[in-house]
Each structure stands twice: as C-alpha cells, then as structure tokens.
Design brief:
- The protein is α+β, with helices and mostly antiparallel strands.
- The chain has six helices and 13 strands.
- The protein is globular, with a radius of gyration of 17 Å.
- The protein starts with 14 loop residues before the first strand and ends with a strand.
Length: 252
C-alpha cells in the first residue's frame, strides 16, 4: 500500500512525497522504485510510476525529467519518457498534469501558489542547491503567474545531517560561496563534517522570499524500510539503487 508523506503547508494541493512502500520491484530495488535510469525491470518501473501517480492525482498525466544535478528549471509539457529534458526543476499551471522529481538522498522540494494555480517540483542535490535550482524554479513560477510572496514550499525525505559526512574541500566550497553557510556544517570525525542539506535548502528558499517553508525531517539514509538511499547503497558496495518520487499537481 502506498502511504504518501504530506505537508501541512500544501494541504489544499494534490501532492505527496512517496517512499519505497507499495511497489512491485524486487531485490535491490524492492518496493516503489520509479527510476527509469535504474537497472530495475522496466515493466516494474512503469507499473510503479502508474501506481505513484494514481495515489496522488488519479487520472493525471505524470511528467518527470532527466535529472542531471543542474540549476535548470523548465515548464512542464507532455514529452515522452525517452525525450525528457535535462533539468532539475519543473513548473506547471496546467490542470491534470502531475509533475515529479526523483530522489535517493537529494532534497525534493514541492512548491505552490494556490491563488495563481501554479506548482513546482525541485530536485536539489548539493550541486543544484548551491547553484540555485530553487531560485530558478521560483523564477519559472513567477513567469507563469505566481507571486513569491504567496508561494509555500515543503521539503521532503532527504539525507539528514547525521548521515551526511563530507570533507574539508566540500565545506570550503560552500563557505567560499557565502561565509554564512558554515552554520550548516557540524564537526564530525577528524577532517570531516556533517552537512545539513535540508537546512541549507530551506535557507535558500527563505532567502528567496518564500515565507513558509516546511521541513518534514525524514532521513532517507537511516530509514531503509521506507526509503531508497544512494549513499547507503554506495557504502554497502551495491551495484544499483532505487529512486523515490515527490509529486504535485493541479486537479483537472
């Protein structure tokens, strides 16, 4: 059974952050793996994507991206799965369209301006986050008629600070971009730090003028029963990993 994680701030908008529960995949991808780029059985992925969409907005058309850890945002259209644009955020004002981003530790962000009828979905890995992918999504929403003063945002399951160890060079990259970024790093093992990417993305959203930012505080790495995790799979030496999806749309 699919049990979406929902945000109070988006209560009036069809949306959900999905985990691995309720799918048909087996083995390393067991559960609701929706990653077209994974090595999972294609038929299982297609069925999982169908189930995911029906759990959030029955009858809607699911639209996703070929994610590349960029800071690029696009307006969603009915492109085929094999012709998905290379980008990491998408926006729509079209009823009946369900937009989604895939994650496996990176940060999923869902945004909505209810009054304007404009929604957005963002995949923010560290490269996209520091590059401004959330800013790009907000700009695209404004171009579609949204007002950033009305936009609300929710951050779904992602790797938590306790699970996200980085090195000195990583910290330095963020500190050089803005000295204030040091607050998102806690001391870890010698020469290592723990990065709060959820907090960083929330701060970027707030700094862009988003007045309400909700964080679900769910750690993908630590909760194997509910979430896929790229870093967990890597630490175990596993050859592949599943992806979960965050979805938002407008009723038809």
């Amino acid at each position: 059974m699919i049990r979406p994680f929902r945000a109070r701030s988006l209560a009036e908008v069809p949306h959900g952050f999905l985990g691995r529960e309720g799918g048909v995949s087996t083995g390393l991808h067991a559960g609701l793996n929706v990653g077209l780029g994974s090595q999972d059985d294609r038929a299982a992925i297609v069925e999982n994507r169908r189930r995911a969409a029906e759990a959030i907005l029955p009858g809607a058309t699911l639209v996703t991206l070929h994610q590349v850890h960029s800071a690029d945002a696009v307006i969603a259209a009915l492109w085929p799965d094999d012709a998905r644009p290379h980008a990491d955020a998408l926006v729509t004002d079209r009823p009946g369209l369900l937009i989604g981003v895939l994650t496996a530790d990176c940060v999923p962000v869902l945004l909505a301006d209810r009054a304007a009828g404009v929604v957005g979905a963002v995949h923010a890995g560290w490269k996209g986050a520091i590059g401004g992918v959330t800013d790009a999504a907000i700009a695209r929403m404004e171009a579609a008629g949204a007002d950033r003063a009305r936009i609300v945002a929710a951050i779904g399951p992602c790797i938590a600070r306790a699970s996200y160890e980085v090195d000195e060079g990583f910290l330095r990259r963020f500190a050089e971009a803005d000295p204030e970024n040091a607050r998102f790093f806690a001391d870890g093992r010698p020469g290592r730090h723990q990065f709060d990417i959820e907090g960083y993305v929330a701060a970027r959203l707030a700094g862009a003028g988003i007045g309400r930012v909700e964080m679900l505080g769910l750690d993908t790495y630590a909760d194997e029963s509910r979430f896929f995790s790229f870093r967990r799979a890597t630490h175990r030496g596993e050859p592949d990993y599943g992806r979960q999806i965050a979805l938002i749309g407008l009723p038809g």
